[in-house]
Structure formats: C-alpha cells, structure tokens
C-alpha cells in the first residue's frame, strides 16, 4: 500500500472543522478492500470518528487490519454492518453487487439510508431495481490515485437524494481527492474514460518519454527520474497555477524553440485525434460493460 501524499493546499483533506458529515455516527462500508480502505483512512485522517464507521468484509485478515489501523467496527456480514446506518458505501466488485443489494434490501427499505455505490459500470436504475425500493442513491466513479489521497471522482445523484445527502457523499468521496458532479448518467462512461482510465494514459506517456530518452543514450534511471518528476511538476502546475493547460503550454513554447519542434511532431501525428479516439474507445467499452451488468 502506498503512503498518502502530503496534500497540497488545493488537494487537502477535509479537517474536523470543515467536515460536512451531518451524522458521523453511521457510515457502513460494504466491502473492505483497497478503495474502502483508502476512503476510511482519509476520513479518519480528516477527523471522522472511528466509532462512526462500520465495515463489512468477508476476509478476516483485511477485517483485522481495518480494526487495528483505524479503530472502526468490523463485521463479517453486510447486514449487521448496515443495520441502522445513515450511509451505505457499496465498495464491492461489480460482479457481487447484485447479491449484496438484494441481501441488504430489507434493511435498506426499513432505514432508507443514502446509498453510495463506487462500483464501476453499475447504473443507478440497476441499483434501484436490486434494492427493489426508491432510495437516495449516489453513483461515484473514483480512480486509483484515491489510494494516495489524490483521486478524482465523478458523482451523480438520483432525484431522491437531498442536498444534505449530496453534501454527505461529497464529503466522503472528497476525503480522498477531488469530486465533480455530473448531471447526466450516460456521461459517467465519459468520466470513466477520462479520469477512471486516465492514470494509465499518463503512465503510458511517461513510459514513451523514458523510452525515447533511453534510445538517445540517457541512462534508464536518469530518464525515468526526469520523466516522472516532469509529470509531477506539470500536474502540480495545472492544479496550483489556476491557468488553463493551453496557456501553460504556450508559456513554455518559444517560437522556433525545442518545445515548438516537439509539438509540431505531435500535431503531424495527430495526437489530439489519437487521444479523442482512445477516449471514445474507453467510453464505448464502459457502455458495453454497463450493459453486461444490467
Ligand atoms: N480500485 C480502484 O482504483 C477503483 C476505481 C474505481 C472504482 N472502483 C470500484 O470500487 C469497488 C471496489 O474496488 P476495490 O479495488 O476496493 O476492490 P477489492 O479490493 O476487491 O475490495 C472489495 C472487497 O469486497 C469484499 N466482498 C466481497 N463480497 C462481499 C460481501 N458480500 N460483503 C462485503 N464485502 C464483500 C471482497 O472480499 P473477497 O476478495 O474475499 O471477495 C473484497 O475484499 C469496485 O466495484 C470497483 O469497480 C475501484
């Protein structure tokens, strides 16, 4: 497990003072794997009380580690963890979500919790059908940098979700990075193609930069260090500078200079067209997977 990054001012964790969890006694995580662990860790570091969090996780080792590291209540069954919870965070793999929702349907119908699903590709209507009742539901699409507190999460809520519940969802997912609300659920496939799969695109670019420099004779270690730090530096400038990416690019591109020569080569290879085709392919695949789960 990677250690959390020190949050920059614009990527900081919520603090007890700005916590917007109106009733922090009762969040139940169903599934205590990677994503739940990072969200729980971020919430605790942000000031949530351990006593406010319960986790259901079948794996005893994971369960013990969550109890030991964060002091949260752990259960081996979803129903006992979910009993009386105001918020249910569904953090299991998409393949097991149907079983989990049908198992929790009675408990949920009785207490009407806010349901937050982070399962990739499972639509709100599908969750509603599995719970067999109209509940406030928020669907969230986080990405892997959430594991180090630098995630990007797209969120969408159904009409049954109150403003207070939207704020609760934002506070929970926002503990592990940035959140962005979207208004139309079909755009969740675009969010998946942009920020869900996005880290891999940047890893590929760093790989390609490293390969190109090694091919010109730079030692691999030096090439990796320079490419990696360049990626981090450019990312931080994007977040901290507040300028558009186009303006930042123009600022480092002198007419007739080295950067301009490289950008001309990218344009000749239609980099923008290639990126659009890649995002389109990921969006279509996301849609296909969603249909499979429905
Ligand atoms: N990791 C990411 O970067 C990422 C990004 C976006 C979205 N997501 C979504 O987040 C969800 C969780 O991903 P993850 O990476 O955290 O997966 P994970 O590490 O596999 O965690 C899921 C956990 O749920 C447990 N589980 C299975 N059935 C259960 C049940 N009936 N009740 C309670 N717990 C149960 C699993 O135990 P067993 O292993 O014993 O079955 C596992 O420990 C997935 O739906 C995924 O699509 C993840």
TrEMBL record:
Superkingdom to which the source organism belongs: Bacteria
Record carries keyword NADP: yes
Domain Pyrroline-5-carboxylate reductase catalytic N-terminal span(s) in chain numbering: 27-121
Annotated stretches, region: Disordered: 1-22
Keywords assigned: Amino-acid biosynthesis, Cytoplasm, NADP, Oxidoreductase, Proline biosynthesis
Domain Pyrroline-5-carboxylate reductase dimerisation: 185-289
Pfam family, one: P5CR_dimer
Compartments reported by the entry: Cytoplasm
Reaction catalyzed: L-proline + NADP(+) = (S)-1-pyrroline-5-carboxylate + NADPH + 2 H(+); L-proline + NAD(+) = (S)-1-pyrroline-5-carboxylate + NADH + 2 H(+)
Listed EC numbers: 1.5.1.2
Classification via InterPro entries: 6-PGluconate_DH-like_C_sf, NAD(P)-bd_dom_sf, P5C_Rdtase_cat_N, P5CR_dimer, Pyrroline-COOH_reductase
Record Gene3D superfamilies: NAD(P)-binding Rossmann-like Domain, ProC C-terminal domain-like
This protein's pathway: Amino-acid biosynthesis; L-proline biosynthesis; L-proline from L-glutamate 5-semialdehyde: step 1/1
Recorded family membership: Belongs to the pyrroline-5-carboxylate reductase family.
Function: Catalyzes the reduction of 1-pyrroline-5-carboxylate (PCA) to L-proline.
The protein's name: Pyrroline-5-carboxylate reductase
Organism field: Dokdonella soli
